[in-house]
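so i finally got all the pieces together for this one. its two components total, 824 residues if u count the protein bits. some of the lines might not be protein, just check the labels. i wanna see the whole assembly predicted at once instead of chain by chain like last time, that was a mess tbh
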Amino acid sequence: MAESMYVVSLEGEIRVQRAEEIRAELQDALTTHEQVFLNVSHVSDIDLSFVHLLYAARRFAKKKNRTFRLTGTFQETVVRRLQTGGFLAGNISAAARDVDEALLPLPE
Amino acid sequence: MQDDFKQNFREEAYELLNSLEESLLELETNPENPEEISAVFRAMHTIKGSAAMFGFDEISSFAHSVENILDEVRNGSLPVTSELINLTLKARDQIRSLLVEEGDPALQREVISGLDSYREKHTPTPRSHSFAEEPPTSGIGTEEVEGGATGLAPIEETRAEHDFPRIYRVVFEPHEEIYFSGTNPLLLLEELEELGEFTALPRIGEIPSLERFDPEKSVISWEIFLTSRCTVNDIYDIFIFVEDRAHIEVQLIEELEPETEEQEGKRLGEILIERGAADRETIEKAVSLQKRIGEVLVEQGVSREEVVSALKEQEHIRSTRERTQQELSSSSIRVSSEKLDSQIDLVGELVTLQARLSQSVLSQGNGELQTISEQLERLVSELRDSTMSIRMLPIGTTFSKFRRLVRDLSQDLGKEVEIEMEGAETELDKTVIDRLGDPLVHIIRNSIDHGIEPPAVREKNGKSRAGTVHLSAYHAGATVQVSVRDDGAGLDRSAILKKAQDRGIIGTNVADLSDEQVYELVFAPGFSTATNVTQVSGRGVGMDVVKREIENLGGTIRIESTPGKGTEMILSLPLTLAIIDGLLVVIGGDHYVFPLSSVDECVDIGVGEANTKSDTISYRGSLLPIISLGELFHAEGERPQVVQVVVSEVGEKKIGFVVDEVIGGYQTVIKNLGKLYRNVQGVSGATILGDGTVALILDVPRLVQITNESREVEQR
């Protein structure tokens, strides 16, 4: 249990150009670890590919029976982008507290 | 009972006085703004009325005489000058003192006679102010001005707009290759958002799992509800450049004419029938079952996404209507903050108890209980979030106080200072905001008193006469950064060193101290740099108190300064004091919690991998200093063969904490330590775990500091 935790920290602007690299890293982490935390605090801006990545990772984790959680806090620009796209459930203050719960869940 | 009413009146009056002050200061920079003039009049008028109602007769009659003058100003027969603003500000202060029965009769007389002579001075010569061209007839002045202001309106109207807002349903389905055209669909949505009230419902069901996912393809589409006066073409215009790379559909759902606003919102069934997503029979059958219709429809095979989307449409229309209603009647209530505090405590207990419940249900393996416990958990977490959000206030409530402070202070000191604010909407926990006021006042005083130079000196140095104090706040990770920046003289390194030596704070060997370390001395107890101690800031209690207060809040403070250019104080504060996300670890059989915001990564190391001489491990190709918490806390028992290192970042430097085992993420309700343990270093609080045991919350920056200090001692 203990050795299977892993934190991925993303930094800067996450756009489609970096998406494949992050996809590979997340898949790798979720294959070798039981719990993977993705720290989003240092992400300064995003495009739609980032949202795809988050949901693809959630789906993968669910299939492999792993824990995949977002941690940290979304920066304001990121909150605005996610909110515009309708990806946030609840209000911003809540989003600042628990980013994982703030992101809209996958449909069943 | 009467006392309760009086207290309510006082609270209301404080708010009115604050907004009065703001409007007055605004008026000072923009003396002809008819809206601010009316705002000032209205505030005074309301104070007069409610004061009379609750038996504050003196306030009422005093406010009445001020109101009279303001009425004449509003009518355009008296001008707005800084003299008038000064008098009205004094009147405001007097009313504030009268509220707590500490009024100063001399000040009151001074204001009234001042206002009288102001009237005499200005009435016969209305030419001195801008309304002079209009005949100063009562009641007409303001209307004329307002008429002038709306002179721009016809230009606006040349854009085709509908008289009443319309609700549109927009379907936006970008093709998979949308990125190749360089388009970011989120930016298009942002443009659409600018047209009006906007609810976007993304369809994310198509996103595949990681291993089958091509990151260069987009599979998200949207259904968007937009309430706006714009036309269908305005909406298509936004998507004009992606027309051949996306499917776009715009549909008018409803026009919100005033009559229809009275009607009930459409029912879910009606919306689904209209769209052809379900037939009437299915709907009626569902209604007869008397469950929630959405759930039943999904069971009967209507697509879940369709139902969710229809619910969103319903919600969007309903909330648009509610907002229209709310504009008519304000629906907020005033609650004392003690009630909120006790609610936070209760929610904290509930979260803890919930954790215990989940744990014990899990161990019993009862499926039904488990379902109930999970539902409860969801409710508790919603309750927790909504309670926390009630306590979040925009920091602007504190910021606005400082305009007056800066104005008065710069007048007293014969300096010219402007204040700029940024990020006033940034939200912070109420407790943090309340306790932040005094330290900020102190910092701003220091900036104006010691930082910003007198106008003559500034001019000589090629600066503008007026200095600037810039206040800003923004979110950064789990913290809020508040900064106070001035464009004054900057800190004087040699003066600080000399003073610190005089006071015996440091020795004589100072050559190798970095600027950062020197500035840090300002926070030493008993330090004050002003050569002439002024009434304003040099009272010996200084920055050390500020620093302690910020640290008590769980925050940090640092200084950046450039000689001749100015100084910036940067405060980093936690968002909330009550509940945090933590990482639960075990050291010597005891549980501890790291705040998750200060954790970067966890790595395993075997015994012998660490270099015990220099206390480092090799980490990602470089050396990482480590601290063994087991040793630091004198934990009992043998250290295990394989330990884990929690990597965290303190002040831009990475450091590893060696722990016996990392357990995982944990929702932490922070409890204060009792009086006896309050001075324990390296621990900022405690929390109660699911099984009832206590875990200490680690204060990471402090732990690093303690270790550095003790290592320095060893080296000597």
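Chain A touches chain B through 58 residues (CB under 8 Å).
Helices of chain A lie at 16-32, 48-63, 76-84, 92-97, 99-102.
anyway lmk what u think
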